[in-house]
Amino acid sequence: MRKTIFLSIFSLVAFFSLNGNAQNSVILKTHFDQSNVPKVPDYTQSEAWAALPTKEDRADKTPLKSNIIEKQSDAKADVFFLHPTTFTYEPKNQYLWNANVEDAELNEKTDNSTILNQASAFNGSCKIYAPRYRQAHYYSFLTPNAEDKKQALDLAYSDIKAAFEYYLKNWNQGRPIIIASHSQGTVHAKRLLKEYFDGKPLQKQLVEAYLIGIATQPDTFENIKPSQSAEEIGGFVSWNTFARNFTPEYYKNGLSTAVCTNPLTWKCNEDFASKELNKGGVGLKYTFVKQAADAQSHQGMLWINKPYVRGRAFLKTKVWHVADINLFWMNIRENVALRLENYLKQ
């Protein structure tokens, strides 16, 4: 019995300690080379999408030990979901700066992490469209060479743009749209919103943008503003999660002035929200966790106490980036439903 408990706690700590530090050791030693990039994805093919409402995928799942039902078949809105960086390891082929969307190993990693744990939060109200894209390697965010970073991210965004245009032409048909993203996905989502929504006719179809895991400033857009309540529509929410009383070394690089929405209250004030307001998160093995975490916005950061899970005393994590969505999964799901309801009333 003691061995079982120990292994359970060890697995829990491992699951909640994936904060990106391990990736810092991967250094790409050659510059970005435009002549050595993976081929352009073909978005007419379902294989180029991590999630589609017309195929069985991880975004269709609902957490274990819950009675939650997936409802994409009769959903009245779409979510265009942009996944975070999963290309974090030493490249195993000739493509260094951007991932190949036909890389089966990487796709499996993406599908079993972000698509399962994050995109699935939207399957109660939305049909889920999540493109695979030639994501920039994690080192793109660490390199001192600004041009390498720009070219890698530009290439990734070119795929996002192509996928979105294909989605608009073939599937949207004037339906309400939610833009949702995490980390690198949010870098691209902000660019997508500026190009296609901000002050454009398509803004009328925007229910809300969930721009999570990257510091986002209040004035990022001209016409799309930070939402101040759970009911507002047509704006955006954003947060970055850390342990209470912890401030990362990169705090002044945009985080100090970033929008910080509390996903338990959907307000941008600094009121503390107890775990009783948390409708449930997803944890180890995609298991539903009631009252997973509390939350409090603090000067651009979302602070939490250790998640209320078995073995929490052993958790040492300070940067909760990987769990930005996991910890508030059910609150996000219910908020999407509320905002969509208000949108449809108008």
Describe the structure.
- The chain is an alpha/beta fold and 346 residues long.
- It has helices spanning 2-16, 104-117, 146-172, 184-196, 329-345; strands at residues 49-51, 77-82, 126-131, 177-182, 206-212, 236-237, 241-243, 281-282, 288-289, 296-298, 301-304.
- The strands form three sheets. A six-stranded mixed beta sheet has the order 1-3-2-4-5-6, sandwiched between helices. A three-stranded mixed beta sheet has the order 7-11-10, with no helix packed on it.
- It is globular.
Concise structural overview:
The protein has 346 residues and is an alpha/beta fold. The protein contains five helices and eleven strands.
List the helices and strands and how they pair.
Elements: H1 2-16, E1 49-51, E2 77-82, H2 104-117, E3 126-131, H3 146-172, E4 177-182, H4 184-196, E5 206-212, E6 236-237, E7 241-243, E8 281-282, E9 288-289, E10 296-298, E11 301-304, H5 329-345
Parallel strand pairs: 2-3, 2-4, 4-5, 5-6, 7-11
Antiparallel strand pairs: 1-3, 8-9, 10-11
